[in-house]
Design brief:
Low-confidence stretches: none
Radius of gyration: 15 Å
Strand content: 5-15%
Oligomer: single chain
Number of helices: 3
């Protein structure tokens, strides 16, 4: 497994949310949950190395569980093909 750095952009300007995200607390306690944008599947083992710095977030184990039913696999395929 490797550490991967992603560009991180806050979509809110609410001070309490910005402060919570920029502090190390939730990141070190693994309170942050990651999901894919396309299928909304969780990445249950993902964790960040620290709070976002300089607009970047470093994450490890950012993969989803591939134990999908046949219908779920068809749905994901159709999403990737742009049909849905």
């Amino acid at each position: 497994m490797f550490w991967v750095s992603y560009r991180f952009t806050l979509l809110t300007d609410q001070p309490e949310i910005v402060q919570a995200i920029e502090s190390n607390g939730p990141w070190h306690a693994c309170e942050v949950k990651f999901r894919t944008r396309v299928t909304d599947l969780p990445a249950p083992y993902a964790f960040a190395s620290h709070a976002p710095k300089n607009g970047r977030l470093t994450v490890r184990a950012l993969y989803v569980d591939v134990d999908l039913t046949l219908m779920e696999r068809v749905f994901v395929l159709l999403l990737r093909m742009g049909i849905l």
